[in-house]
Amino acid sequence: MPSGACAPDRPDGPRRRARRAVRRDLYAAGLAALLVTAAVVVGHAIESADGTLRVNWPPLYARWDPHTGPGTPAALCVAVLVVGYGPPLAARLPWRRLLLAAWAAAMAWTWSLALVDGWHRGIAERLTTRYEYLTVIDRFDDVGAALRGFTGHILMDAPDNWPAHVAGHPPGAVLTFVGLDRAGLGGGAWAAVFVLTVGTSAAAAALVALRALTDEPTARRAAPFLVLAPAAIWMGVSADGYFTAVAAWGLALLALAATRTVRAPRLTAFGAGLLLGLTCYLSYGLTLYALLAGTVLLLARTARPLPPALAGVALVAAAFTLAGFNWWEGYRLLVERYYQGAAGIRPYSYWVWGNLACTVAVTGLATAAGARRALGAAPGALARGWRRAAGPADRFTVLLLAALLAVAAADLSGMSKAETERIWLPFALWLLPAAALLPDRGLRVWLAGQAVLALVINHLLFTGW
Three-class SS of residue 64? Predict the structure, then answer.
């Protein structure tokens, strides 16, 4: 070969690159597993030494309780069916049927996991503990008076202070369950059925948004991972699952309006604003959804949905404000209440990385591997986006980056020490599709890994919130 000549590419070059990429995926999954292991080992050492973590099985809010239940065979069957038939069905089902199938499969998976703990412990009694919303339903006989006096009961030293979850959220959360009670659907069982049914629809909402912002093949590849997610452990009858669905549908409607893939984009944008506005009155921390909403508009390269969407948000805010609730005052008092309780003791130095281990438990190792690919593609995707040459893969990468940024902001704020396996569900939803970046070969193995992780956690631990 003449001096200075370059050797031609070997025929197996692409294969070698693919193998290297798979090895890096495995390294990323291994590092994620090591993070969880370190959080467990270090967390147990800290909790045994001084009890400052205030959780029984760090980093999760759970306790060691190996068990099976009536949901065990059902969960195994759902896992086998989704792993075996999920990817091909997601690829060929008509779009609307796919949305319904994803919702139904997510519901079956979540119901099964919840029933591993039995009907009473896993479903009917979940929302009736002393920390939950249902314990204060009788204090909302006069809703107007309750809203006007809501902030007066947030602090721990306030008279008749609210239980932890009521004090920790704006009143939109508890009003949901008050509404169910007024409609004749009172009690823990009906509340659980509502939360689980609505919450699992978040999988369909994410598919709608992904199709609008990226393309249909990407959404279809993500579908099985949105269904068979470890997150279902905490989506089941946790109010945060309901919050996740409201926020997800708000973002999905905004994506449809921004890409003008609906007949009435302005009305759709207004509906998105109503849901996103309600999201802010369900959980203070979900104001970080503004990052995701801004990313949707950025990816669609339009601000046209912004005025009607802001009008929807303003209408919700005006309704609560005129009813007597001051959001800013509520948030200020919540921060004070937060540090009056366990957060004043829990060490930031552990939870700032322990929270990320919780996120791995919620999203699974397949998500970690997919996120590795997204981060690797980020420089090119951002550069092409800046030049307005971004394709579907680039837009998908940017959306994942926005979700990661929202998680990072929540983590660094210090307002999420522990229990992030449920608190961050609305953000975790947008990390799960990262697994769609993994290659076809081995996709079922990754999907099976997601299911195994959920089954192991749910059968070895009794999770709470």
Answer: strand
Neighbour count for residue 17 (Cβ, 10 Å): 10
Query: pLDDT by residue (tens digit) across 157-188?
Result: 999 999 999 999 999 999 999 999 999 999 99
The residues, any chain, with a CB within 8 Å of residue 48's CB and separated by 6 or more, are: none
In whole angstroms, give the CA distance from residue 442 to residue 386. 34
| CA atoms within 13 A of residue 130's CA, in its CB half-sphere | 1
Amino acid 408 reads: A
Residue 210's alpha-carbon distances to 165, 221, 259, 385, 396, in angstroms, are 32, 10, 11, 17, 8
Per the document, the length of the chain is 465
* Statement: the pTM of the whole predicted model exceeds 0.70: yes
Q: Mark out the alpha helices in 131-238 (DSSP H runs).
A: 143-148, 164-167, 172-182, 188-200, 202-213, 216-227, 232-235
Residues 134 and 187 sit within 8 Å (Cβ to Cβ): yes
Q: Is 301 exposed, middle or buried (0-12, 13-18, 19+ CB in 10 A)?
A: exposed
Measured CA to CA, the distance from residue 205 to residue 227 in angstroms comes to 12
Dist CA 374 CA 394 (whole Å): 9
Residue with tokens 């604003």: 273
